[in-house]
């Protein structure tokens, strides 16, 4: 009778240790993954399999601890993913703005050049109406001055547009970097939750 009782207790203890080790492995796998719902499902599966294999079942306190760990891991991963999604959307919006700015710069430059050409033609016609020779130094000087002003205005418009586009592109890259950092932070926090809770949930791991 005593031999039978000792054998039963030993078998139950072995089953419980195997269950808790399996649960620890499953939780670590969930923390290393990238999806909170999968992590929670993995931990819940580990809880169910542990209870079945132990033959003694899990206490309510241990079940609540594992459920809390699953929620913590899933929450950390979910928060990281949601933050990364928001940063990705912001980066895409910034890139779209950069494209719009590029198009507007081209339009503004074209309109500026057209306006200067129209002014040059008007000045030329006015000089001709006054009987001034268009090859005279005065006519040439006026034409060259108008051409310089047109070039300067065009460069100013393009430089301003390029600066704005560069700023938007840099902001987009920074936002994308924050998104990648958010995912890494979520995974790190999830792993930290598993490592912090493991000694309380699976004390056999410290033996």
Protein architecture, described:
The protein is mainly alpha-helical and 207 residues long. It folds into two domains: 2-78 and 196-206; 89-184. 89% of the residues lie in helices and 0% in strands. The protein is rod-shaped and about 110 Å long. The two termini are 30 Å apart. Mean pLDDT is 73; it is low at 1-40 and 49-57.
Structural descriptors:
single chain, 207 residues, mainly alpha, 2 domains, 4 helices, 0% strand, disordered N terminus
Q: Order of helices and strands, N to C?
A: HHHH
Overall body shape: rod-shaped
* Total helical elements: 4
Query: Pairing-aware structural class of the strands and helices?
Result: mainly alpha
Question: What fraction of residues sit in β-strands?
Answer: under 5%
Q: Overall mean pLDDT score?
A: 73
Total count of strands: 0
Radius of gyration using CA atoms only: 36 Å
Helix content: over 70%
């Amino acid at each position: 009778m005593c031999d039978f009782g000792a054998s039963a207790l030993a078998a139950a203890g072995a089953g419980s240790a195997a269950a808790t080790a399996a649960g620890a492995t499953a939780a670590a796998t969930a923390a290393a993954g990238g999806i909170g719902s999968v992590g929670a499902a993995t931990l819940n599966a580990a809880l169910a399999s542990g209870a079945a294999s132990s033959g003694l079942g899990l206490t309510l306190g241990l079940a609540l601890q594992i459920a809390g760990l699953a929620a913590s891991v899933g929450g950390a991963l979910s928060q990281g993913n949601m933050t990364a999604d928001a940063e990705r959307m912001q980066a895409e919006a910034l890139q779209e703005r950069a494209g719009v700015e590029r198009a507007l710069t081209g339009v503004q430059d074209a309109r500026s050049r057209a306006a200067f050409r129209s002014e040059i033609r008007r000045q030329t016609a006015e000089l001709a109406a006054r009987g001034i020779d268009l090859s005279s130094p005065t006519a040439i000087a006026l034409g060259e001055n108008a051409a310089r002003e047109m070039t300067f205005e065009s460069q100013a418009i393009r430089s301003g547009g390029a600066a704005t586009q560069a700023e938007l592109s840099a902001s987009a890259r920074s936002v994308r970097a924050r998104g990648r950092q958010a995912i890494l932070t979520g995974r790190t926090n999830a792993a930290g939750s598993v490592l912090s809770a493991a000694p309380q949930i699976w004390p056999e791991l410290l033996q």
